[in-house]
Amino acid sequence: LSLPRPKYTMALKYTTIEDLQSAHAELRKSFQAKKAIPLAFRRAQLLQLARLFQENNDSLIAAHNSDLGRHKLEITLPEMGPIVSGAVRAAESLEEWNKPEKPAVEEWRSSWDTTVYTTPKGVVLIIGPWNYPFVCTILPLIGAIAAGCPCVVKPSEFSPASAQLLAELFPKYLDTSVYRIVNGAVEETTALLELKWEHIFFTGSGRVGRIIAAAAVKHVTPLTLELGSKSPVFIDADNTDIELAAKRILWGKQQNAGQCCVSPDYVLVPRAHQDAVAEAFKKAYRKFWPHPKGALDPSSELSSILNQHHYGRIMELLRRTQGNIAHGGNADGLKRIEPTLVTDVGLDDSLMEDELFCPIIPVVPVDDVLDAIQIIQARPVPLVIYVFTDSEETKNKCTSLLGIPPNSGTLVLNDTFTQLGIHEMPFGGQGDSGYGSYLGKFSFNTFVHRRSYINVPPSFEPFLGHRYPPFTEEGFQA
Ligand code: NAD
């Protein structure tokens, strides 16, 4: 399964501003011509998308690896499998998802043909991040195709080989008058944002998310913001298997070297158990990386940090921390940083400032679960809260505290990361971690308008006489 360490194999060709504008114009024409609407067309395009990922599996994985130096298994499981199964499941679900709904209404309106239809919103834009160059762009695209929306996808310029390969493969499999990959950086994305879209689906940082939101508001464009955050973990050490918790947290943290939106960011532990938790992390580390040089061994599967900029940022965080480096702290001087445990971290520590997006695990000692909840509540709303406990009382406290539970996009008990594989549930943030959601039918829901329809039959007129002026006292009795 081992792949060579990253080296750029492809240069990314940016789309010219003129080509972006003409792509937008062509997609609008296709929408007017209702090209993306027939269910047979949507089904065929979804299956073509699945074929694109199946038939080019090896070259897509190689491009991804050359961008991010990630192990084949870490690419296949989160990036390739969900796209193929997601596209096929959407193709199979089109009739059901698009079925008009007949809501239950009051008996006296039962002859009004009350119906809710789903209609495609229109031409939509998807902007993606570099850390998951395929799922963060293509899973929303599956929703757009299923909804009948023509779509422009703008992958990140920081995963250039993946972005370039997608741009080359799309015309071979999909109808490019309806679905288009465009490439570029800030200038190109800014030009895209000047155009009118009927929905923008953005995945990336909170800083850029705010720029996207400000641009969208000019055209009153609905928006999905899938943003990053500092997702906390609470270990209820009296009521959980600490070794299992440490193993599952370290597994989630080392995925893509911590460069995941749902990475467990920092760990809150009752003070008396901090040392035991640190020992459990060390034990899990030794099991994961029994190599002579641990996780930094050339033969280990640990992913790289994106680039020197982020590498420097992370090393600087480690330099500034006032916590105690209990394990790790090494780097290979190139792009790999060892999963590192820092204990006795204070709330104002450098490691608690922003989303870490790296394999550092700060451990913050707390008094108890209520203290942990207060710390979480005092910070921006995270994408996920992870809690390790077997106690019903702790579970209840985390779901409801005096009616005000600590908010988050998702609450996960006793594991990390796994929630992303469940496409029957919505995935998305709340507050500072974004708004809107996707996966499975929720992606479809994002790109359709639910249009209510009624027909009040003329034969109903005898029952409506009381509503017309001149008003009478009898009108109140009607
Ligand atoms: P980013 O915000 O820097 O970039 C995302 C996209 O925005 C890229 O395509 C980029 O070209 C574009 N962009 C950058 N600057 C822009 C500007 N000034 N104007 C217009 N467009 C601009 O994010 P990133 O570094 O690619 O990704 C990492 C972030 O994404 C992390 O915060 C991570 O948590 C978050 N993320 C969130 C999710 C989620 O589902 N919530 C998933 C993956 C990543």
From TrEMBL:
Provide the GO MF annotations for this entry.
aldehyde dehydrogenase (NAD+) activity
Q: Which residues form the Aldehyde dehydrogenase domain?
A: 13-449
Could you name the domain of life of the organism this protein comes from? Eukaryota
Q: One GO term of the cellular component aspect?
A: cytoplasm
Assigned keywords, A-Z:
Oxidoreductase
Could you confirm whether the keyword Oxidoreductase appears in this record?
A: yes
Q: Which GO terms describe its biological process?
A: aldehyde metabolic process
Q: Does the keyword NADP apply?
A: no
Q: Which family does it belong to?
A: Belongs to the aldehyde dehydrogenase family.
Q: What is this protein called?
A: Aldehyde dehydrogenase
